[in-house]
From TrEMBL:
<protein>
    <submittedName>
        <fullName>Dienelactone hydrolase</fullName>
    </submittedName>
</protein>
<dbReference type="GO" id="GO:0016787">
    <property type="term" value="F:hydrolase activity"/>
</dbReference>
<dbReference type="InterPro" id="IPR051049">
    <property type="entry name" value="Dienelactone_hydrolase-like"/>
</dbReference>
<feature type="domain" description="Dienelactone hydrolase">
    <location>
        <begin position="3"/>
        <end position="187"/>
    </location>
</feature>
<keyword id="KW-0378">Hydrolase</keyword>
<dbReference type="InterPro" id="IPR002925">
    <property type="entry name" value="Dienelactn_hydro"/>
</dbReference>
<dbReference type="InterPro" id="IPR029058">
    <property type="entry name" value="AB_hydrolase_fold"/>
</dbReference>
<dbReference type="Pfam" id="PF01738">
    <property type="entry name" value="DLH"/>
</dbReference>
Length: 189
């Protein structure tokens, strides 16, 4: 499977590279675009300020340009938090998308979004201040109306970016469970 894996608002951190290596070890080809051009951040607030400085349109442009050379192959779009939101936007706009793997995040869905049973898997903390229950319920319904085949996996007590061992949110048990399920999902595509 060909996978493009987008980083969170912290930037292209070692955890993203490690995740890509884990996916490669399972036989996948993985690209990890650096949408922040080498910048990484210690806090969410710093990363969000930089993201806002770049602007949503420029960030999306960078993501599209990074994925474009591989999209003819039929990509699986994946990402962490902000990167998951980016992956979702690209997957919903790419008729050749093979799947969507969302780790710790979702995004708005255009009213006219339409996919043909796109396999989608979301892994998110429970509760998650960035992905509140009301939002997730509405997101799930909108994704279904758009034609996606959605699975949601919740991890009670985990922090928002619980798969990143370099952050305070890290939860080893939830992270390993996430990777087990996610690798099975990718294998099924």
């Amino acid at each position: 499977m060909d996978i493009v894996l987008f980083h969170s608002t912290y930037g292209l951190r070692p955890a993203v590279r490690d995740a890509a290596d884990r996916l490669r070890a399972a036989g996948h080809e993985v690209w990890t675009p650096d949408l922040f051009e080498g910048r990484t951040f210690e806090t969410v607030e710093e990363g969000m300020a930089f993201k806002d400085e770049i602007g949503k349109d420029e960030l999306l442009k960078r993501a599209i340009l990074a994925a474009a050379p591989y999209s003819e192959r039929g990509l699986v779009y994946a990402g962490f938090s902000l990167g998951a939101a980016t992956a979702q936007t690209l997957a919903l706009g790419d008729e050749k998308a093979r799947g969507l793997l969302l780790l710790h995040g979702t995004s708005d869905i255009a009213e006219n979004a339409s996919v043909d049973e796109l396999p989608v898997q979301l892994h998110v903390a429970e509760p998650d201040a960035f992905e509140p229950d009301d939002w997730l319920n509405a997101w799930y319904l909108r994704m279904g109306r758009a034609g996606a085949d959605v699975e949601v996996h919740r991890y009670a007590g985990a922090g928002h970016l619980y798969t990143d061992p370099g952050l305070p949110d890290y939860d080893k048990e939830a992270a390993e469970a996430t990777w087990r399920v996610a690798l099975g999902f990718l294998e099924s595509l």
